[in-house]
Design a protein that fits this description.
single chain; alpha+beta; Alpha-Beta Plaits; 5 helices; 6 strands; PspAB-like
């Protein structure tokens, strides 16, 4: 960064650190002990929708790689589009095998990055729920290399439980690299797996 960048307020972009995803299993233990949320076995990677043969080939490779896992339970990996036009690759695993789900999320992100689609990657999430059925997602922001909690309120339309999100932020501060800029805690309404 040069002097002109500093004067104009430009910042150096953060280099994504996909290895941060591997902190999720230990964070899940802390989350369960402190707040009662357990993994659902569902996770997803969100990216800007891309058209073309190169992307279709990458998608087929990723899906074949993840579907080839003989330990997979439930439906195969699914490609879905949300109401906002974003694409989601949804993976299902056993709720007690968060490590395998994290491996899936890492593999999808890595494959997209290697094939030149890194700029289209937006976020990844792992879904959790408590015994009362409340949903919570730990969202990894690809371009920031940080996590934040997202807690939609049940049956309240598009509203979220900010108090729960801040509680989870405090609980996981030592386990995950938490996004400190709360304005970047984007809602992921309609995210598959939540």
């Amino acid at each position: 960064m040069g002097l002109l960048d500093i004067l104009l307020g430009r910042t150096k972009p953060v280099i994504p650190d996909l290895d941060q995803l591997f902190a999720l299993p230990s964070a899940a233990i802390t989350l369960e002990a402190a707040a009662g949320f357990t993994p659902t076995g569902q996770g997803a990677v969100c990216f800007a929708t891309v058209e073309g043969a190169a992307f279709e080939q990458t998608h087929r490779e990723v899906q074949a790689l993840l579907d080839a896992d003989i330990e997979r339970t439930g439906p195969p990996v699914q490609l879905l589009r949300d109401d906002y036009g974003y694409s989601w690759l949804l993976s299902h695993r056993s709720p007690d095998d968060l490590s395998a789900l994290v491996n899936d999320l890492h593999a999808v992100n890595s494959a997209m990055e290697i094939n030149g689609f890194g700029p289209q990657l937006l976020c990844s999430l792992a879904a959790f729920e408590n015994p009362a059925g409340r949903s919570l997602a730990l969202v990894y922001l690809y371009k920031r290399g940080t996590f934040y909690p997202f807690a939609p309120l049940p049956e309240r339309g598009q509203r979220r439980d900010n108090a729960l999100e801040l509680q989870v932020k405090a609980v996981l501060a030592n386990d995950l690299r938490i996004e400190q800029d709360l304005s970047r805690w984007f809602p992921v309404w309609g995210a598959p797996g939540l």
